């Protein structure tokens, strides 16, 4: 489903270069559930952004479902992203002027989903994430963990088959974090492909396949039995 | 050093009320090291904001070093905050236009610290937090965990005796998180008062005193031996 070959991502700051990803090659099959761990600054968010078509590599190739997406124009990338990928950002990127409910609903509105169907999905997502009595709050009227749950619900509202989640439990207590992972894992049980960046070894260990990044390189790629 | 008596904090959203803190009473002595844990949405950030003079209670009293600070005017609150309290925000609140180094330096510039002394403290903080080769990066050119470390370094740059840290290791791998806690604990060893909000039980267990909030109330307040 996903094939990365020799991905390089170099940032330039002032006169210097930061090699955030160094020759990363990775195959991810449809239906896999993997975690990505590694030290702060090792390139995890950068890798997820490349996978999510939010950032372009400086070198290397990205094939998504057999199609080379490396060279696509911005509007085409945006279309593929909207239709196929649910992305949970490390710092949420919620729309400040919209309520929790409106934020979750936004991808569905953009996709032209009917109001009655949007309402059905919203009710289910708000209940699943314990956000029912915060639906009308804007992000600045929510706790950190409530914002995180809104970001996750938004990523799932279009029922995408590829979920990319950057630290989805970072601001959640253990119990709420387990609930969130249960929902993401249900997407996996239903056939979806799920990649989770996490600093929490307990969360990382839940995945079938565990990738470790250090200084922009994949240094470990283990599968647990019964993959 | 800190006495909270019957603190109430009520938010109003549309027609409804959210009781974020309900009758919280708490004494914190100079030199204590405590952790505050509890479910997402239980009032931890709100409590820390009240302690940090960033938010006013709707009822109840806050005495800081014997002085009633509940009714102070905004500019006086700001002065007390600047001089006595180092605050690490759950989502950092770094200045986007400034570099990592300039962000860390900002409180010192505002306090009129001499350039040579600022440079000395900056060099020490950048080294302590592994940020030396990211000093010239702006927040959007830093990883999540690097931003978090900049926020912590900034809070410590004025050598405050009261440190309030909201989820200081939330975006850090275990190793970097331990390093950060070691620096905060050094402040404690040197006589400072440290309160850490955390979702990580391992981090919470390091404190001498552990407070648990549920639904705006203190439900647990335990001290470990040798406090
Ligand atoms: N826009 C940018 N410009 C310059 N350097 C950048 C930029 N974005 C990221 N970096 C650098 O690239 C490296 C990788 O960043 P990335 O955000 O992928 O790390 P990460 O593994 O997600 O870290 P964390 O666990 O702290 O979130 C970091 O050293 C960071 O400073
Ligand atoms: N400005 C606000 N307006 C309305 N409600 C608010 C506001 N700020 C916080 N709340 C609500 O008050 C409650 C406590 O929020 P707080 O941010 O203190 O929780 P928290 O314990 O820090 O949660 P987390 O662990 O998710 O960060 C939450 O239910 C939240 O929705
Ligand atoms: Mg990251
Ligand atoms: Mg909080």
Automatic annotation (TrEMBL), chains A, B:
SUPFAM superfamilies reported in the protein's UniProt record: P-loop containing nucleoside triphosphate hydrolases
Record-stated family: Belongs to the ABC transporter superfamily. Macrolide exporter (TC 3.A.1.122) family.
InterPro entries to which the protein is assigned, alphabetical: AAA+_ATPase, ABC_transporter-like_ATP-bd, ABC_transporter-like_CS, ABC_transpr_LolD-like, MacB-like_ATP-bd, P-loop_NTPase
Organism: Candidatus Desulfobacillus denitrificans
A Pfam short name: ABC_tran
Name assigned to this protein: Macrolide ABC transporter ATP-binding protein
PANTHER family recorded: ABC TRANSPORTER ABCH.1 (PTHR24220:SF86), IMPORT ATP-BINDING PROTEIN (PTHR24220)
Keyword terms: Antibiotic resistance, ATP-binding, Cell membrane, Membrane, Nucleotide-binding, Transmembrane, Transmembrane helix, Transport
Keyword field contains Glycoprotein: no
GO cellular component: membrane protein complex; plasma membrane
Single Gene Ontology BP annotation: response to antibiotic
A GO MF label: transmembrane transporter activity
Ranges of residues in domain ABC transporter: 2-226
Keyword Repressor: no
